[in-house]
Automatic annotation (TrEMBL), chain A:
<dbReference type="InterPro" id="IPR023333">
    <property type="entry name" value="Proteasome_suB-type"/>
</dbReference>
<dbReference type="Pfam" id="PF00227">
    <property type="entry name" value="Proteasome"/>
</dbReference>
<dbReference type="GO" id="GO:0000502">
    <property type="term" value="C:proteasome complex"/>
</dbReference>
<keyword id="KW-0963">Cytoplasm</keyword>
<dbReference type="InterPro" id="IPR029055">
    <property type="entry name" value="Ntn_hydrolases_N"/>
</dbReference>
<keyword id="KW-0539">Nucleus</keyword>
<comment type="function">
    <text>Non-catalytic component of the proteasome.</text>
</comment>
<dbReference type="InterPro" id="IPR001353">
    <property type="entry name" value="Proteasome_sua/b"/>
</dbReference>
<dbReference type="InterPro" id="IPR016295">
    <property type="entry name" value="Proteasome_beta4"/>
</dbReference>
From TrEMBL, chain B:
<dbReference type="InterPro" id="IPR016050">
    <property type="entry name" value="Proteasome_bsu_CS"/>
</dbReference>
<keyword id="KW-0378">Hydrolase</keyword>
<keyword id="KW-0963">Cytoplasm</keyword>
<keyword id="KW-0539">Nucleus</keyword>
<comment type="similarity">
    <text>Belongs to the peptidase T1B family.</text>
</comment>
<dbReference type="Pfam" id="PF12465">
    <property type="entry name" value="Pr_beta_C"/>
</dbReference>
<dbReference type="InterPro" id="IPR023333">
    <property type="entry name" value="Proteasome_suB-type"/>
</dbReference>
<keyword id="KW-0645">Protease</keyword>
<keyword id="KW-0647">Proteasome</keyword>
Amino acid sequence: MAPGQYSTDPKQHTLSPIVTGATVIGMKYKDGVILAADTLASYGSEARYKDVCRLKKVGEYTLLGGGGELSDFQYLSDQLDEMADEDWLNEDGCFMGPKEYSSYIGRVMYNRRSKFNPLYNQFVVVGKKKDEPAHLMYVDHQGTAFEENFVATGFGMHLGIPLLRNSWRADMSLDEAKALATKCLEVCFYRDCRAYCKIHIGVCNGTSVDISAPIPLNHFWGHGAWTEKRLEDDDPTATW
Amino acid sequence: MVEVEEPQDYLDVFQSQRGGFSFENCKRNAYLAAQANIKPPTAMKSGTTICGIQLKDAVILAADTRATEGPMVADKNCEKLHYISKNVFCAGAGTAADLQHTCEMMESQMELLRMATGTEPRVCTVVRRLSSMLFKYQGYIGCALVLGGVDVTGPHLYQIYPHGSTDKLPFTTMGSGSLAAMAIMEAEYNENLSIEDGKKLVAKAIRAGIFNDLGSGGNVDVCVITKETGGAILRNYEKPNERKFKAQHAAFPKGTTPILKEEIMKLVSVEEDVVMRD
């Protein structure tokens, strides 16, 4: 290879994700919308970066949560920051809200997949602009985009959506919503190999967008069936 | 031409039935796949939600009632809870025929064992026999089982996979709806539940599978096994999918269609003098 040449192969597009984030859970509550995600970025099956914030504040009123390839999430975050700066420079008395950002992200994702160079992510774009109704949108690496009252990405789709469908109500208080999101991520931690027991919760209530400090999750491993001594042998942990 | 080995005498038959693994069809399968593009049958997906929990002195199993044939619902209200013995029951996901026959085989073996030893069969015996058999067939028998029962050593709950691996667990779910049911279990299980709360929990888990998984549906069957009463299957414990509107046809009264002619023909002649042949 010549000095300064990066590779002998011609230009390549993203083939598969390398450093990935797992589940993101979003749900509307009485006064706005919340987003929750754990703090892990996995390198394949290795739990490589355990203190990553996968939630990002975009502009004044919007929150972006990203699962999937972390570098693509960071790239899009930078692009959205530039857009937010231009929005501020316009000085036209209004700022872009979650509807605008989620629509833009949806088009970007579909455009990239149509060029066979996708951003390998599952995004949840949430926000509440002052007195407008709360907004929650799911955007995929394939360009799938839809609005909903609650969504979950990745494994959260299989483990969290049943819990959300049972317990979600439109008039939930902030504490109830946080408890439900925490419960879903707890179950994900038990049953998803790529999940983690520390999470961030972000809240958009129309006036401010706050991302919490990392919250540790509770987990219980002391089931009697695992710890009891059985009649025949002294080894308490054998299952076969 | 593919060579076919004919057994020569009784020793060859004995040799072929000795047991252990026989790999003589592997060459044939490879030949068929390469030359005639004939692939072996693929495993059928188990569109089911089954679950079980172990409580202080009881085991509760539950299952949905949908049997699927590809994308079609073959049976809206089939029975997935099988009787093995008075104190051992199992819920099965996978190929319906395999499950039925495997469970019937276990039932008969346990009854023979009970009669031979005069004692109640233990759960671990069934588990051992099932896992040995399934491993022998290398996963080709598509039985994924949640097996539970109460014997002299207490309540036990096992999970058995088609390849023969077993797990002993406090709560478990299997089938395509297992993730949805597991979410409910992980959120709400604890070992100090009463039997009534346990029944509600397994029913809730199966309902999560029914409504969140396309391969599961229909009603909820529950089976409670306790030391005193043995096991009892509560068929259709919950019916969350009752048909709301059914087309009503009033029965036509007799005589609506007029009878024009009546003719009775004798097609069978009965012979009284039957001679037994030697």
